[in-house]
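Students often ask why we bother predicting the structure of a whole assembly rather than each chain alone. The short answer is interfaces. A chain on its own may look different once its partners are present, and contacts between molecules only exist in the joint model. In this exercise we take two input lines together and write out one structure for the complete complex. Read the inputs first and try to guess which parts will touch.
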Amino acid sequence: MIQIINTGVANIRSLQAAFDRLGQAWDLTEDANEIETASHVVLPGVGAFAAAAESLDRLSLREAVKQRLQDPSKSTLCICLGMQLLCDSSEEAESAVGLSVIPETIKRFDADVPVPQLGWNAVTPKEQSTAPYTAGEAYFANSFRLTATPPEGWGYAETEYGGTFVSSVWRGKTLACQFHPELSGEWGQGVLANWVAGNVIQEQQDA
Amino acid sequence: MLKSRVIPCLDVNDGRVVKGVKFQNLRDAGCPVELSFHYEEQGADELVLLDVTATRQERIAMLETVDKVRKRLSIPLTVGGGIKTIEDAERLLNAGADKVSINSAAVRNPDLIVDMAARFGAQCTVVAIDAKTTDGEFQVLTRSGTEAESLNAVEWAATAQRLGAGEILLTSFDRDGTRDGYDLPMLSAVTEACSLPVIASGGADSVAHMIEAFEHGAHAVLAASIFHDGNTTVMKVKQELDRLGVHVRI
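Now the answer. The structure tokens for the assembled complex follow.
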């Protein structure tokens, strides 16, 4: 069963519909024990960094989510703002505290590109041997992003928008995506399916 | 780099698509669910569903339509038409919209933009602007083009950005349905005054029109008739755009 952390966000219907299409059962959870024990947990994207961080505190889920993320053998998926929450903080709300799984600060896109980034962009895994998906095009809807590469032990993918940013990170069965796999067509469905199955996708070797 | 988007638009009335639709290989040509999925398969980057109904009862039917489309669609879905309050927007998001487009209500009450952006995020808050050229100015129209406002579309786009909108859907009333191409002077003026992504709408009849729109600052092009008529497909259009040097998702 996939447990989607219910941070009070309105628009997670698309994610639920995507799991439905994959034939995967899901439920919403606000329960620390479920977050610890569920086979699969999703930290979905919400509108604002501060509101999301606050809602984890309000529901007393911060420690449970953090502990789960320390265990790469557990299947955990963080989408959009969910990925940003892995970091220490964000320029969006400097007083708000992230989960500090990745010791970096999330930064706003530079002023020379339209913000938010809305639309399809290429996602390129840098370390295909550990990657949960192959290169593809994904739908983004974000004003902030991770610019620094993650610490050792994490794989990552890059995307170009006003310079290079880190569009996804993974470690074991933990996957975080700045893009929305649930809105990224067939390729995105594949990303979700691989995460559900716990697959690493080796690049196909030419014969 | 970010791709230029091609977005089919469906006008929906009481659960049915209401512009002339001539697809032959669809069981139910007027069904928004079938058509939406068909366009996704053809490579549409997003879809816009525009609720053109008038009554409260029909608006409830729209929620069911959005729910049904969402179940099948794995690309972004914007829903617009008749949204007056943040509760209206929330109902559509809960039904499965990813973005909500507001038009007349935002002109009447610009705080709605502020509230939606705060509650759902800028990326979810689309401000639709219908405008026409009057004495060399781009004049905003509301209520499906029936009311002329003393509001300049270029200034309104900049205001919408300042209030927290994440995207502008700019429709030329003069060009809508004419097949004469997008209103390029209006598009240039808006994209110069506002750094948000702008979707050009109204007047598309060819790939050439779409290229003009991208050259005049559009991030996305909306089209209805060109796809509904069945003379071309989203994929054919995107392949042609790609061949002519526009970066699109193929």
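Check your guess against this: The interface with chain B takes residues 10-11, 13-14, 17-18, 20-21, 46-48, 111, 113-122, 137, 139-143, 160-161, 180, 182-186, 188-189 of chain A (CB under 8 Å).
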